[in-house]
Structures are given as C-alpha cells and as structure tokens.
Design a protein that fits this description.
alpha+beta, 2 domains, six-stranded mixed β-barrel, 14 helices, 14 strands, 19% strand
Length: 408
C-alpha cells in the first residue's frame, strides 16, 4: 500500500478529531480490558506454577473429597485421619509424609478479639515436622522457627507484624496471645507468602492444637514425597488403591483424592481459563460496539466525501485506490484505538500489581506482559478497524465520478 494513502487517511482522521475520538472509545475500552485481564491472568498463573514447582515433581497431595449423601441430606465429608498418615508412611514407595490440619479459633491480643485460622504442625515425629517446613512457602523473618517441643509457643504470619491488624497495633516477639482462653507466647514471624490467609494464620504444634483449638485426629491435607519421581503416576494409582482398601471404600468411589502438582496446576488453569473467557467475552462486546462505531463513521465519511471521491476518479484514481484509502483509514482508527487501549491496559495491570504488592507485602500477583501480547493486541485492533470499514470502503469504490460530481 502506498504511503500517500496512509497520509491522506491520517489527514482525514485529524480533520474529524471529535468524531474520531468518540469512535475509538469502544476499541480503547475493549483492548484495554483484554490486555489487562490476560496479563494479570498469566501473571497469576506463573505465580501458581512457581509455587507448585517448589513442591517438586516427586510430591503427591492427598485430600478428602466431598461426597453426596442421601436425598435431602446435603453433602458430607469423610475426613482423613492420622491412621491414613500411618498407612502411607508404611509404603515402600513413599520417602516421607507430612500433613496439617487447620481450624478457626478465637484469638485475643490485649483488648482485641479476632477469629483466625490456626494451623496444626505435625509433631508426632521429627521427620514429619521437618517435612512440613520444607513445604511451608516462607522462612522466618523475626524470632525463631516453631519447634516440635513447643507447648505454648506460637509462630505467626507476616501481617501480624506489619499490618496493624490488632486495633491499629502490631504483635511483637514474645508477646502473649490467648487462643480459646489458653495463653501462648509468640516465638517467631514468617516472611510474606503472598497468600493473605497464610500471612494471617497462626502455627502451633499438633499437641498444642489439640489442647487449645480442637482435640481431633482429623487431617486436612497429607503431603507425600515418593521415592521415584519417574514413576509418580504409577505410585499415585498404587497408593490410591491401597488407601481405599485401608479406608474400606471402593477405589472408583473413593472419598479422597490424590493429585500430582501438575494435576493441581491443570485444575487451577481450567478455572482461570473459564474466568478469563467470561471476562474477555464481556470485553469483546465493547470491541463489537467499537467496530459498529467505525462502520457508522466510515459510512458517514463516504457520504460527506463524495465530491472528493468523484474528483479522484476524474483524474484517474482506480476503484482499488478508493477502496484502499477508506480501508486504511478505518484500519488506522482501529490501530490508534488499540495503541491507546494497550497503554491503558498496561497501566491498569501495573496499578493492580502495585496495589496487590502493597496489600499483600509480596509480589505474588505480577502483570505478565509479553511482546506477543502487545503486538497481537495491536494487530487485532487494526484488523477490527479494517474489517469494520470494508463495506463502507466498497461503497466508496463503487461511486461513479459523473454521479458524484453531478450531485455536488
């Protein structure tokens, strides 16, 4: 396409600045939403992938499954227990086993009361205790790590140290808290994980958990490290069959699930993809409206410039030249809207990243901006504009010089 056509198209857009800006609005909003949503979604996906990779490819996650009861009974959940942990520890294909339980408890600090999640750290043996902290997503930033012998010691998430959660106050090292009317002492604080639930949680040993929070052998999650990573799928099936027999259930209707980190990622990606598809579909409506606006603007432009079209044809312009002029003009409308939309989308994504970093204390949610995303959004916006202007450009190309000059 010749440079003169681009110059003429750009001059035409500049002559009708207000109309052009109003026409661009739908494209700007749609492209901004697409860029922001995709970049944030990919950033969240990368963060989760990093967390899962930290678990290692030799790890299995065992959790209880919700089971449908009889009609009208609602749903029930048969919990995992320490007996299941002991069964898994006896298996020759298992290298180590850890587990944790959590529950909500009434926590009092000075004159402030909150209901928070308390996590039970396994202390039945030193191996399971050590394994737990291999998977805990952060290290100690102040004080010391919880010890398996702690009876009244407690470790807290980072927000208790930095976020003024307690009526505008932070908790300090060696301060005393009351959990369900039992006094405990703070021995350490963990670094931010990026997960608000973890960063507000309280960690106690299993013995303390049973004494202060809930006297139970219930286990919420079991983390299994296998001996041979290359056979992890085979070992997963073997453990599933064995654990089903141990629990007295049919393996095809097991009341628990065993997943590899990759399966957890796949489940997460499915959810993210569904949410993104819905949101991008909404953004697509804005793009459609923007395309209709470009079509309407270009039809109006053709009607207003019939004399110009007639003169161009009278001095030798071909139908293809007229078509190219209006086609490029509509494409430029889409492209300019896309560039503005990309800038706004990038700005919004970075704003969300900054706010989440300030709120969570860690860069867990980062905008994942790639040149493929930005270039693709730019080309897509040009394509929308060009397609929206195709019919008006065809109409302009079909205009007859004699008719247009006669009418004028």
């Amino acid at each position: 396409m010749r440079r003169e056509f681009i110059q003429l198209a750009w001059q035409s857009l500049r002559r009708q600045q207000l109309r052009s800006w109003l026409t661009l609005l739908g494209i700007v909003i749609g492209i901004a939403a697409v860029v922001a949503l995709i970049s944030l979604g990919q950033g969240l996906e990368q963060a989760v992938l990093g967390e899962v990779e930290a678990l290692g490819g030799d790890t299995l996650i065992v959790q209880a499954s919700s089971q449908l009861g009889s009609a009208g009974a609602g749903s029930s959940r048969t919990p995992l227990t320490e007996r299941d942990v002991e069964f898994l520890e006896r298996q020759s294909s298992v290298q180590s086993v850890s587990y944790f339980t959590f529950s909500s408890a009434r926590v009092e600090y000075r004159d402030t009361v909150r209901f928070l999640t308390v996590i039970s750290v396994p202390s039945r043996n030193q191996d399971s205790f050590n394994s737990f902290f291999e998977y805990w997503p952060s290290g100690v930033q102040l004080g010391r790590e919880l010890s398996s012998s702690d009876r009244v010691g407690i470790a807290l998430g980072s927000q208790h140290l930095t976020r003024n959660l307690w009526n505008g106050r932070n908790i300090g090292l060696n301060d005393k808290l009351t959990i369900n009317n039992n006094v405990v002492r703070v021995v350490g604080f963990y670094e931010p994980t990026g997960n608000p639930q973890d960063d507000r949680s309280l960690l106690v040993t299993e013995n303390a958990f049973r004494q202060f929070v809930e006297d139970t052998d219930r286990v919420d999650t079991i983390i299994v490290r296998v001996t041979d990573e290359s056979r992890i799928d085979e070992i997963s099936r073997q453990l599933e069959r064995g654990l089903a027999r141990e629990r007295g259930v049919d393996v095809n209707r097991a009341d628990f699930s065993i997943q590899t980190p990759l399966e957890l990622v796949a489940s997460f990606q499915s959810i993210i993809n569904i949410v993104q598809a819905v949101l991008i579909g909404i953004a697509g409506i804005s793009l459609f409206v923007g395309g209709v606006g470009i079509t309407n603007t270009m039809y109006t432009s053709v009607l207003e410039r019939r004399k110009e079209i007639g003169i161009m044809k009278a001095i030798g312009a071909k139908n293809s030249d007229i078509f190219s002029l209006f086609f490029i003009e509509s494409g430029l409308l889409g492209l300019v809207g896309g560039i503005i939309g990309i800038a706004l989308g990038v700005g919004f994504a970075l704003l969300v990243q900054t706010i989440s970093t300030a709120a969570l204390g860690t860069s867990f949610l980062e905008a994942y901006l790639t040149w493929q995303l930005l270039v693709g959004a730019m080309l897509f916006s040009f394509l929308i504009g060009a397609l929206a202007g195709t019919l008006p450009a065809l109409q302009a190309a079909k205009e007859q010089a004699a008719d247009t000059l006669h009418d004028e």
